[in-house]
């Protein structure tokens, strides 16, 4: 029997008022009308609890776009699942948060793009910084744990000190500084987002210093960038090992980016029980464990530790999801990553080029396009 999952990422919608160029949602966004209903989400969460899930991240897109969010939270809470809301903060009101807390919401993670309001709005593709600041205050007033999440890239890495100060000023318990993982829109905009080695070195020094200074005050999490150090990341703690993702239309995936692997045949909660999906579906068994590996992973001492890196990244960069993740220096394709990092183009004069950004309907527009 496979290990039991403990975490579920519920992508309630791909709809979002923001247009971040680093978004990891797929280029083909699920339309609002194809989303699961309230009862289908409630049922999926009850089934998740039955197979061992104890923690759900309610994410998107922007989950606040779901008017039934409190009912979904209540269903999770009733099934014994701890819920965390992952939000941009846009659209959060005191009354709405009150209903969510009453339904059983346990914590909130707020995305922040930059410490400077104008830079934050530019990266988010719309005015949103003030709404985030208000949302942080509401979460603190409601007595919920508050985390900030910052996706890092060349346009905000140099603001790391100021971002940590922002976390302190907004009363956060935790700040997650997550270097961009290149999936979906972020992969598409990779050359606009990739930082320099010097930027990363400076940022790492800052994190080390501030962590020591802030011990016991603000938890500082640093999510390493796998393109730079020649080491593959243990993606998702292994395929089908710890967690699962339910996409807005009910597709169940071992990770949020797996829909990009074309022949995966991912199952849907509308058609199958989660228990079957987790235990027996070909999708979840496909890269579970180490049997599927080829060399160099198959004979590598680290294969039980990093699981050969990320299947989605291996597919995105080599066209073969069974290949060793090119982020690993032992991969025969490592030059795909190393050359990119070493020949990274110079930063544009505006500081944010003209990336292509996701819109709510999934069409591609240039920066600054109206919703
Ligand atoms: Fe990990 Fe495979 Fe690289 Fe070994 S060869 S370090 S298992 S990715
Ligand atoms: Fe899919 Fe890494 S993101 S396995």
What does this 3D model show about the protein?
Keywords: 4Fe-4S, Iron, Iron-sulfur, Metal-binding, Oxidoreductase, PQQ biosynthesis, S-adenosyl-L-methionine. The structure is a single chain. The chain is of the alpha/beta class. It is built from 14 helices and eleven strands. The strands form two sheets. It has a nine-stranded mixed sheet. The chain has a two-stranded antiparallel ribbon with strand order 10-11. The radius of gyration is 20 Å and the shape is globular. The C terminus is likely disordered.
Question: What's the quick description here?
Answer:
33% of the residues lie in helices and 14% in strands. Helix 1 links the parallel strand 1 and strand 2. The chain binds iron/sulfur cluster and FE2/S2 (inorganic) cluster.
């Amino acid at each position: 029997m496979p290990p039991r999952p403990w975490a579920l990422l519920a992508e309630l919608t791909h709809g979002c008022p923001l247009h971040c160029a680093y978004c990891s949602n797929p280029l083909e966004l699920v339309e609002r009308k194809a989303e699961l209903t309230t009862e289908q989400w409630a049922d999926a969460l009850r089934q998740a609890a039955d197979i061992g899930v104890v923690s759900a991240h309610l994410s998107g897109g922007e989950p606040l776009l779901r008017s039934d969010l409190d009912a979904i939270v209540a269903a999770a809470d009733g099934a014994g699942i701890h819920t965390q809301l992952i939000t941009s903060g846009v659209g959060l009101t005191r009354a709405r948060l009150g209903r969510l807390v009453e339904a059983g919401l346990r914590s909130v993670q707020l995305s922040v793009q930059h410490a400077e309001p104008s830079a934050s709005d530019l990266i988010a593709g719309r005015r949103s910084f003030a709404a985030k600041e208000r949302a942080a205050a509401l979460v603190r007033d409601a007595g919920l744990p508050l985390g900030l999440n910052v996706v890092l890239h060349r346009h905000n890495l140099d603001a790391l000190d100021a971002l940590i100060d922002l976390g302190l000023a907004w009363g956060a318990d935790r700040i997650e500084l997550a270097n961009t993982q290149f999936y979906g829109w972020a992969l598409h905009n990779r050359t606009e987002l990739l930082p320099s080695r010097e930027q990363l070195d400076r940022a790492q020094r800052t994190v080390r210093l501030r962590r020591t200074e802030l011990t016991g005050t603000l938890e500082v999490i640093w999510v390493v960038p796998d393109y730079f150090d020649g080491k593959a990341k243990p993606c998702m703690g292994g395929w089908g090992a710890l967690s699962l993702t339910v996409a807005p239309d009910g597709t169940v995936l071992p990770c949020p980016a797996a829909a990009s692997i074309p022949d995966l045949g991912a199952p849907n909660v509308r058609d199958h029980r989660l228990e079957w999906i987790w235990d027996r579906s070909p999708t979840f068994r496909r890269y579970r464990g180490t049997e599927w590996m080829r060399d160099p992973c198959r004979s590598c001492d680290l294969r039980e530790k990093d699981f050969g890196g990320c299947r989605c990244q291996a597919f995105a960069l080599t066209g073969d999801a069974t290949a060793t993740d090119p982020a690993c220096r032992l991969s025969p394709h490592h030059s795909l990553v190393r050359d990119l990092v070493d020949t990274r183009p110079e930063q544009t004069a505006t500081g944010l080029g003209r990336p292509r950004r996701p819109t709510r309907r999934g069409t591609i527009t240039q920066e600054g396009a109206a919703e």
